[in-house]
């Protein structure tokens, strides 16, 4: 599964390693302006997103737009992601 990590924090590295150990392919953001970020995620074949930022309006908008556009999941916790 190809997963985008939406994070403004420096914690993405640990999550990336864990997801890769589980066999996932990972892309790390922030991805910029929400409409173009979502288009890029769709073009890249992202299957779902893990959002690690709290109170980051841009990342939350990207996550919401991604779900509305694709119906694909946005997770808030690593344990929610299927293995």
Descriptive account of the structure:
- With 83 residues, this protein is α/β, with parallel strands linked by helices.
- It has three helices and four strands; from the N terminus they run E-H-E-H-E-H-E.
- It has helices at 12-21, 34-43, 57-70; strands spanning 2-6, 25-29, 48-51, 74-75.
- A four-stranded parallel β-sheet has the order 2-1-3-4, with helices on both faces.
- Helix 2 (34-43) crosses helix 3 (57-70).
- The longest helix is centred in the C-terminal third of the chain and has 14 residues, at 57-70.
- The chain starts with a strand and ends in an 8-residue tail after the last strand.
Distance between the termini: 9 Å
Question: What's the pLDDT, averaged over the residues?
Answer: 92
| Share of β-strand residues | 15-25%
Helix/strand-derived class?
Answer: alpha/beta
Adjacency order of strands in the biggest sheet: 2-1-3-4
How many helices? 3
Summarize the biggest pleated sheet: 4 strands, parallel
The ordered string of helix (H) and strand (E) elements is EHEHEHE
Task: Note poorly predicted spans.
Answer: none
CA-based shape: globular
DSSP, total strands: 4
Indicate the percent of residues in helices: 40-55%
Round the Cα radius of gyration to an integer and report it. 11 Å
